[in-house]
UniProtKB/TrEMBL annotation, chain A:
Places the protein is found: Cell membrane
Organism: Azospirillum lipoferum
Pfam families linked to this entry: FtsX
Source species, domain of life: Bacteria
TM stretches of this protein: 23-50, 276-298, 319-347, 376-396
Keyword annotations: Cell membrane, Membrane, Transmembrane, Transmembrane helix
Entries under InterPro entries matching the protein: ABC3_permease_C, Macrolide_Exporter_MacB
One of the record's GO molecular function terms: transmembrane transporter activity
GO cellular component: plasma membrane
Name listed for the protein in its UniProt record: ABC transporter permease
């Protein structure tokens, strides 16, 4: 090993070994950086969780048709004649057929309704009315326990995350819904039999309630309304054929997109909003943490001035002094990053909810991702560099003579 | 013991100060420490410098260490003109020619005695084994062979100062500069430290310049210089009593 690395090693070791003597101020630097890291990872975990929920299960073989230039079902309206026309066109409109030769198409409506959660609080949830083909047009979803609702019956199935939130899912496969309508849930003016739990692998359907289209429309006085048409595409060219058929189906403007594109389009603004809020807040906190780190490292240099001066007199270089001070700052930042990440990791997988685009509860799980950890770790090290460089310059420029004159 | 002459016996000097001037402060607050000061110290001498506080003893030591540049005049040690050298060159020169012993030892508290002594050797192209051998040798020399793995906090003041002496001599420098080496020690520990310095001078031929307030410490030197009001004068019996 040449002289300079040895000098850096000795000086860094001396700086780190002196940390117990500066415990309070060093811990405050670690804690402030940990807070920044935890907050940033938290924001990114919310964004990743929302993205995972909103974007999960999106299929390129299923198309969703919305009307009125809307990108959300809540703002969409589809004329009934459009649905009839597309059903009649079938494969000519790019729609796949079921085994009985009928177009795989589901007219759907999403109604915001109030439900009582397990904690007694009432919250808005999305009740989706769909036709019999509806569940088949959601390849990412499946019945986990119980069965699907029966057409014409006041029966519903509930997404598993929402069911847990409402206290309707014990997580056991032999829970009530498996054997029929043991549990009931009041939505609107009537009670509904909960006959099944839907698992959507973290997708939006985990936060939805599904029921028969005609029953839902009848109970909530929405007869004739259609907000979305969901169809199975009959191949790679199906979407183009569907789009070409839409102008002939109705004079109203309609647009068709794959389910994957729809979910990506819906999730992007939400995750962008979370990131837009999260980064400025975190960066403001990082500025504060950098000031704290600067203060800590200045204090460290001040306390070590005799050591630094002695080593400089012995012949140790300014560069070694600089490097050791930066290394101490980086070590404290790294400790803060690890602590912050450990705190944030506790939140990983926690279930929480927010309001979806239609004003209903969207339940999702916080997702701490490796990318989030890397970003937060990089920010922590940047704080260390920002807080450490000026004190390191001060340490390197420290006059051995003046420091030794000042005494211990 | 020989009282002060401007040129100590044995000169031409190993250490030479020619017309050195030094002041502190700037502008109206400028204070002259000494003006046109000259001195020659031969190789192998042991010189104590005494004087009242503020007389410039420590400033002189810092000048000899190459830590404090002079305003005017010439400082040469073993033929090297410090006045003509830049800061980095003086720092490099210190590592080969000079050992410094501090009043408060200035040891790294988190390092063991051996690691403290090893510090100046880290700047040299020596193997780990060579460094360890040298460290063991000098620790034996100062009577701390069994204390190599102890930290300064586990040692008495006298032992810490002996570690400081070992660190100063581990590179085998020709010149030792001692700044109040007994100022923080009790009488017995001070005697032990001075005994080691005396042996280094007599047996190994080290040139030693020691600044001290302690007459007993000054009596262990071969020559005593008294610095007052910016000029040397012979140290009379009243100074050494």
């Amino acid at each position: 090993m040449s002289s300079l690395p040895r000098q850096c090693f000795v000086l860094t070791r001396a700086a780190l070994a002196g940390l117990p003597g500066r415990l309070a101020i060093s811990l405050s630097m670690v804690a402030s950086i940990a807070l920044v890291v935890a907050v940033l990872i938290g924001f990114l975990a919310v964004a990743a969780g929302l993205e995972r929920t909103l974007g999960a299960g999106g299929s390129r073989e299923v198309a969703v048709i919305l009307g009125g230039g809307a990108f959300q079902e809540i703002a969409s309206a589809i004329p009934p004649d459009a649905a009839r026309s597309l059903q009649a066109d079938g494969t000519a409109a790019g729609i796949a057929l079921d085994d009985r030769g009928r177009p795989l198409l589901s007219r759907e409506i999403a109604v915001p309704v109030e439900a009582t959660a397990a904690d007694g609080q009432r919250r808005m949830v999305a009740l989706r009315g769909m036709e019999a083909a509806g569940p088949r047009l959601r390849p990412g979803s499946s019945i986990r326990t119980g069965r699907l609702f029966a057409p014409g019956m006041r029966e519903i199935v509930i997404g598993e995350t929402l069911a847990r939130d409402l206290g309707l899912d014990t997580g056991s496969s032999d829970a009530g819904p498996k054997t029929g309508s043991i549990r009931r849930l009041r939505l609107g003016p009537v009670d509904w039999a909960v006959v099944g739990i839907v698992a959507a692998q973290g997708g939006a359907a985990d936060s939805e309630i599904w029921g028969d289209l005609d029953l839902v429309r009848a109970v909530f006085d929405r007869q004739g309304d259609i907000q979305a048409l969901r169809v199975a595409l009959d191949g790679p060219d199906g979407l183009a054929a569907l789009r070409a058929a839409l102008p002939g189906a109705t004079p109203s403007p309609l647009d068709a997109m794959t389910e994957a594109d729809l979910l990506a389009g819906q999730s992007a603004p939400v995750t962008r909003l979370v990131a837009l809020l999260g980064w400025p807040i975190t960066l403001l906190m990082a500025v504060g943490a950098s000031a704290g780190a600067l203060n800590t490292m200045m204090s460290s240099v001040s306390e070590r001035r005799i050591e630094i001066a002695t080593l400089r007199v012995l012949g140790f270089s300014r560069l070694a002094t600089f490097t050791a001070t930066v290394a101490e700052a980086m070590a404290l930042s790294l400790a803060g990053a690890v602590l912050g990440a450990a705190v944030a990791l506790i939140l990983d997988g926690w279930s929480t909810s927010t309001l979806g685009a239609d004003g209903t509860a969207l339940v999702f799980r916080l997702a701490v991702t490796p990318a989030g950890l890397m970003k937060a770790g990089t920010l922590a090290l940047a704080i260390g560099v920002l807080g450490g460089v000026l004190p390191a310059v001060a340490a390197a420029r420290l006059s051995p003579l003046e420091s030794l004159k000042a005494g211990p | 013991m020989t009282p002060f002459p401007p040129s100590l016996p044995g000169s031409p000097g190993f250490i030479r100060l020619d017309g050195v001037s030094k002041s502190h402060g700037r502008g109206a607050g400028r204070v002259a420490i000494f003006s046109n000061l000259s001195l020659e110290i031969p190789r192998g001498d042991f010189v104590a410098i005494m004087g009242p506080s503020g007389s410039g003893k420590s400033t002189l030591l810092n000048i000899l260490a190459g830590l404090d540049p002079v305003d005017a005049g010439r400082v040469a040690i073993d033929g090297c003109d410090l006045s003509a050298m830049g800061e980095d060159a003086r720092a490099a020169w210190r590592t080969t020619t000079l050992g410094i012993i501090f009043q408060f030892y200035n040891l790294m508290p988190m390092l063991t005695a051996a690691e403290n002594v090893e510090l100046p050797l880290l700047l040299r192209p020596l193997s780990g084994r060579e460094r360890r051998e040298r460290v063991a040798t000098v620790l034996d020399l100062v009577g701390l062979g069994g204390w190599a793995r102890h930290h300064p906090r586990e040692m008495s003041g006298g032992q810490r100062q002996r570690v400081g002496i070992a660190r100063a001599i581990v590179t085998d420098p020709a010149l030792l500069l001692c700044d109040e080496p007994t100022g923080d020690l009790d009488r017995r520990s001070a005697g032990e430290a001075l005994d080691i310095l005396g042996r280094l001078n007599r047996e190994l031929g080290k040139t030693i310049v020691m600044v001290t307030h302690d007459p007993a410490a000054a009596r262990s030197a071969r020559h005593v210089l008294h610095l007052d009001k910016g000029a040397f004068s012979p140290a009379g019996p009243e100074v050494l009593s």
